[in-house]
Amino acid sequence: MNFSAEKNATFDEKGRVVLPADYKNEMGGRIPGGQMAIELDPYEKCLNIYPMEAWEKHLSELTGKLNRNNREQSRLLDAIYRRFKVIQVPDSCRMNFPNNFLEKVHIRKDVVFVGQGERIRLWDAAEYEAYVGTDEDYAELFSKHFGNVEE
Predict the structure, then answer these.
(1) Is the distance from CB of 91 to CB of 16 less than 8 angstroms?
(2) pLDDT band at 101 (very low <50, low <70, confident <90, very high)
(3) Could you tell me if residue 122 is left (phi over 0), alpha (psi between -120 and 50 degrees) or otherwise beta?
(4) Are 131 and 123 a contacting pair, CB within 8 Å?
(5) DSSP code at position 42
(6) Strand arrangement of the beta sheet that strand 6-10 belongs to
(7) Between vectors from CA 131 to CA 56 and to CA 102, what angle results, nearest 5°?
(8) pTM
C-alpha cells in the first residue's frame, strides 16, 4: 500500500467519518480483516491510521528496540500501548474513533485525511492548515534533505 494525497471529510452527527474511497481502493476495495489501528502521533496533533498488516510491522519495529526489563524503556512501552487502539471498521467504512483520541488532537468536525505511504494521517482541518505551511517550506525542506535537484 502506498497511500497518498489529501481528502477532505466531515464527521457526521453520530461522530463517524467515512474513510475516503481512494484509500479503501488502495486496500483492494475492503478493509483487510475489518480492522485498522489508530495511533496518536508522537509529534503532531493528528491520528495515524494503519491497516493491520502495516500496524503490526510498525509496532514490532518499535517494541523490538525496547527492553521491558529496563525501567525507562518499560515506561516508553507503556506509553506506546496507551496511545493506540485497534478499531472495527464496517463495510460502509464509517469509522468511529475513540473520543479521548479525538479530543487530544483537537479533531471536531471538518477533517483532512492525508496519505503517507503505509499510513493515513487524520487531522482537524484547521490544525492541518497551520501544519502544512507554504510551498516555500516544502522547497526548503526538500533541498535540505535531498540536495539540489535542478540538474
Answers:
(1) no
(2) very high
(3) beta
(4) yes
(5) S
(6) 6-10, 110-116, 119-124, 47-51, 35-40, 84-88
(7) 55
(8) 0.89
What residue ranges in 3-109 does DSSP mark as E strands?
Answer: 6-10, 16-18, 35-40, 47-51, 84-88, 94-96
Per residue in 47-80, pLDDT tens? 999 999 999 999 999 999 999 999 999 999 999 9
Handedness of CA 99, 104, 110, 115 (dihedral sign): negative
User: Which amino acid, 29?
Assistant: G
Cell of 1: 500500500
Dihedral angle of Cα 38, 41, 45, 48, to the nearest 10 degrees: -40
- One-character DSSP codes across 89-145: --TT-EEEPPHHHHHHTT--SEEEEEEEBTEEEEEEHHHHHHHH--HHHHHHHHHHH
